[in-house]
Amino acid sequence: MITTDAPTEDPGKSHVHNVALTRRRTLLAGSVLGGAALLLTGCSEDSGPGGSRQEADAAAEARLRGQAARDSAALLAHYDATLAAHPGLGERLRPLRAEVARHAAAFGGASPAPSAPSTAPRAGASAAPSASATASAPASPAVPPDEKQARADLAAAERRTADARAAALVSAPPELARLLASVAAAGAAHAYLLTEDGA
Fold first, then answer.
1. DSSP string for residues in 1-21
2. 80-122, pLDDT tens digit by residue?
3. Which of 32, 43, 100, 151 is the most buried (most CB within 10 A)?
4. Is the model's pLDDT at 61 over the cut of 60?
5. Spatial distance between the Cα atoms of 37 and 22, rounded to a whole number of angstroms
């Protein structure tokens, strides 16, 4: 006579096995959900209003904007000093200066009034800055008496400023990075126009 004990032991073992699996799955699912909740909580603390990460990003953006505005103010002072020293360059320089003033305003800086032809000093006082340059920038650069060299110096200032803005792109947030890239490209174009003899 053949007897098997398997059928009598299976129901109890499978029930214990199923309960163990269910508990394991529940614990596993709970730990996964708990980890996800922790991750979401951490994200919301960083990105919430007044979060330290958000404040740090805002402070970094404000510093970049402030520096870009100061760079534009220095460039405006250079344009004003050059216009004062070489009134004959007015037709060529004023459109470029107006664009630099718009850049300064876009970065949050003051947009000083353009230097008027009537305020430009006569040939004897070639290195003196105009009234608007004195009001808008901390210092005016010395301008060479030679017109071509004065344009070359202004072009070099445009290039330096464009390079500084391109370097700032790395740490700038997306919106400010787009503005910096656009203004840097405009500065490079200005430098080209200033050194082009036929323009």
1. -----HHHHHHHHHHHHHHHH
2. 999 999 999 999 999 999 999 999 999 987 655 555 443 333 3
3. 100
4. yes
5. 22
pTM: 0.62
HSE-CB of 127 using CA atoms within 13 angstroms:
6
For residue 28, the tally of other CB atoms under 10 A from its CB is 10
Please tell me the distance from the alpha carbon of residue 187 to that of residue 12, in angstroms, as a whole number.
82
Rounded to the nearest 10 degrees, what angle do helices 174-195 and 90-106 cross at? 170
pLDDT digits (tens, 9 = 90+) for 125-184: 333 334 343 344 447 789 999 999 999 999 999 999 999 999 998 899 999 999 999 999
Which domains occur in the chain, in start order? Answer: 55-195 (1.20.1260)
End-to-end CA distance of the chain: 115
Nearest residue to 99 (alpha-carbon basis) of 164, 188, 195 = 188
